[in-house]
Amino acid sequence: MITPIYVALLAILFVFLSFKTIKIRKRLQIGVGTGDNPELLRAMRVHANFAEYVPITLILILSVELLKGHFVIVHCLGASLLISRALHAYGVSQAKENLKFRVSGMLLTFSTMLVSIVSILYLSSL
C-alpha cells in the first residue's frame, strides 16, 4: 500500500499547522475565535483549509490505489497533494502574501483531485 505513506506525511504537516495555530493562540492569549487578529486568522484558515481538502483527496487517491491504479500514478498523486498543501500553507500564512504560492497550491490540489476522479472513473469501467 502506498497511500498510507502520504496519509502519514500529510498528518505530520497537519500537526505542524495545528501547533503553529496553538502557539499563536497562546502568545496572543486568544482561546476562541480570532480576536480580530489577522495573524491568528491566517493560521486558522491555513489549518482549516488543509482539513477541508486533504481528507477527500486522500480518499480519492486511496480509491485509485484500491482500483489497482499504477503505483507511479498513486505516488504522483500523493506527492502532488503533499506539495500542493505545503505551497498553499506557506503562501496563505505570510502576512504579505505571495499569491503565486496560494494559487499554485490550490491549482495543484484541484489537479490532484481531478486526475484522481478521472482515474477512478476509468478504472471502474474496466
Automatic annotation (TrEMBL):
Superkingdom to which the source organism belongs: Bacteria
Cellular-component GO terms for this entry: membrane
Main location group? membrane
Q: Where are the transmembrane segments?
A: 6-22, 43-64, 70-91, 103-123
- Known InterPro entries for this protein? MAPEG-like_dom_sf, Membr-assoc_MAPEG
Q: Does the keyword Membrane apply?
A: yes
Places the protein is found: Membrane
Going by the UniProt record, its keywords in alphabetical order are: Membrane, Transmembrane, Transmembrane helix
Respond yes or no to whether keyword S-adenosyl-L-methionine is given for this record. Answer: no
Q: Which PANTHER family match?
A: GLUTATHIONE S-TRANSFERASE-RELATED (PTHR35814:SF1), PTHR35814
Annotated protein name in UniProt:
Glutathione metabolism protein
Q: Which organism is it from?
A: Pseudoalteromonas phenolica
Starting at the broadest rank, the lineage of the source organism is: Bacteria, Pseudomonadati, Pseudomonadota, Gammaproteobacteria, Alteromonadales
